[in-house]
């Protein structure tokens, strides 16, 4: 019903109050026939009374003629009262109806009363399977999916209840699951009737804003399992289009309803949407789908609906599924730079780009976008330099195309800092490292060695730049004050260069550090603007200082007298270079006692001081160093977890993939030593596999591109078999003596990897 209050005749008004009408069917059958004239209200009430006088509980089967046109009667379910006392009267006429029945009806239609329970439906299914008589099940599906009103009638816990909050959709989730779980096992004609009903519902002309009952219908329809087949994609696309076009307020409701779905159902719906997008982009049988030019709205609609699921996942604690499960790997094979340029040009306007919905782009795509964007900036700079040289008729030096770093091993840190500061305009160029006094061309090994040596030196506890937190096994910024924070800028620059040059660093920062790096994601134009000031919570402090966070948590939950028992003020004490200093958390904080009323403010200010204010200058230098290399709009596409993956690599190990990508020198993959090596490694527990990777590459993480990007090599070394294996981390290489037995190899390898020195960790 569209809710228009047009002037209707008395009979027409009463007709509008009845449930929706099906095409009527022949008295003896259940199939659909031509429409029959609608009965007058008097005839309907008369027949209704006669049926009740006959002692019938419902209306199925026995009624014929015009009554079969009312689908509520065909299902043996009671209709909603036409007025408050209609069921107590034996016979009513139009003239005896109360005035309120004749008045214009409200815009929200009255939902028919449907009493089918989950158990009754399951019993109907069991009888149908056993007997082969699907009539009752067929009629249920036929009626239920005929309109949005009927969908609500079947699945709403209370037919005319409001349920207009984000916390409760009012949907009987158990019943929805039972109906959908059974649907694909019903005969084909039932499944087709459901799809036809959905088409009829979606083709209705809507006027005005959607009601909560409409939202409920969309919420239920999107869970239909039939959309897994490409034959239903046209219907699915139209459903997604209507959901995508809903208002922001309606989307807000849907997000909160979606997060209440079971994890199994939620994952099914996400995977179905991802499959829909992939199939539309690269159909196995192009003729199965309409031409892409005629349905260009399919992918934007599906992606926008997928964003509702992503939002639901984000607001759930803990998340329903890992954020990486929203990646669509198919998008690694499209022209993602064209998507990026479209996004840069049009932003979040009506011009669709996958970059508007970065959750769907894998870290591989985002890394490639950052690198290509930086390359384009570098090429532009190099071109200007070359043109300038040529115009002045100067000799062109190809070193212009590289960031050439020359350092002495004995002065590694100071030389590196000087070189990077002096050549800060060349940071986006390809990195090439030379160690002074050593012959050799940098083919990647020297660059990686430079990174590894610098990281080991910078993060050593004696150096004092970073504090190693034993409880959380991570590093955090030292709060000591100095006049020059350029070394923190060097660390940020190193991290940016590692991302740009595809080198995973063995750095252990908490996730909060990467959130600070994205606050904001691009460097502000105003040099005085604050950077890295991410909102700090007790959960963030838990990542770094778990013992302190636990103590503050106990303060928040303390039931006694906070002021007298804790005797705290809005003041903190901090040790810096052996000297204890005091800082007020707010003006006059040393004179403000912490009470039960203000303890939340105290905890928030304490966390903010430790994670932001006390290290602001250190982190600001670090932030600007990182963004001096990775100055790209593409950083706006990244989550903190993805920045960590770009810098340090992925923690997900796949040793089978490493085996497939491995290269050999002096051995072949069929040699007994190599076969024993992989037998041992694949059987290792995860902890030993991580140690092996750290032993061979200097990091226990995998590059974003996967194991294949490691260029892992196993080489033969002609030494006695009582020697331990040797590694060259700069080249991701492990050297194995020709061990004769699996037992011997396992013993020697375990000793080697368990006693290898780590970088930056105690």
UniProtKB/TrEMBL annotation:
Gene3D superfamilies: Hect, E3 ligase catalytic domain, Hect, E3 ligase catalytic domains. This is HECT-type E3 ubiquitin transferase. GO terms for molecular function: ubiquitin protein ligase activity. Keywords: Transferase, Ubl conjugation pathway. InterPro entries: E3A/B/C-like, HECT_dom, Hect_E3_ubiquitin_ligase. It comes from the Eukaryota. The lineage of its organism: Eukaryota, Metazoa, Chordata, Craniata, Vertebrata. Pfam families: HECT. It comes from Stegastes partitus (bicolor damselfish). SUPFAM superfamilies: Hect, E3 ligase catalytic domain. GO terms for biological process: protein polyubiquitination. It is an enzyme of class 2 (transferase).
